[in-house]
Amino acid sequence: MVVRQSTGVPIKINLTTTIKQPEQSEKFTFSENGQAVYIGDTLYLRYQESAENGTKVPVTMKIKTDNTIQLRRHGQADLRLLFDVNNKGLSKYRTPAGLLDIMVSTKRLISKIEQKPLNGQVIIDYDLAVGGQYVGNYNIQLQFAN
Q: In which domain of life is the source organism classified (predicted)?
């Protein structure tokens, strides 16, 4: 089922994020319920990510047909990242302490979406720099299904 307005369909999201930094490596895995919404040709995946302190952080992944993906986390800190293998993405990370400059260098971006039934997979591999300093390599693997 393809939904073309602001209404959506319920989905189950499985997400694994791997962070490789110069001194350490971490892996986070979770499953959440969410919603898939098409607005025009753009697919929006919306879900609430469970934070370590027990709060829920709203997340939106915007998957466009031009092979770019935007990830937005709305919480105490507001983060918007644009993933595009052809261009580095400069963004601002709004934290309670102030604004930080974020640079994303996307190494790999794969999105596979099936319509009937609605399901898919997103893989994003990127390097992240904050204030001009390399922070680490990040890998996002997300699967969703109706």
A: Bacteria
CATH number listed for the domain at residues 9-145: 2.40.128.20
pLDDT tens digit string along 22-68? 889 999 999 999 999 999 999 999 999 887 777 889 999 999 999 99
Concatenated DSSP letters for 52-119?
A: TTS-EEEEEEEE-TTS-EEEEEESSSEEEEEE-TTS-EEEEEEETTEEEEEEEEEEEEEEEEETTTTE
DSSP 6: S
Q: What is the pTM of this model?
A: 0.89
| Helices then strands, each counted (H, E), the chain | 0, 10
- The residue type of 102 is I
Q: Where are the domains of the chain?
A: 9-145
User: CA 56, CA 85: separation in Å to the nearest integer?
Assistant: 30
In the predicted structure, residue 5 carries a pLDDT above the cut 60: no
Residue 146 to residues 11, 23, 41, 70, 119, Cα–Cα distance (Å) = 4, 39, 18, 21, 6
| pLDDT at site 98 | 84
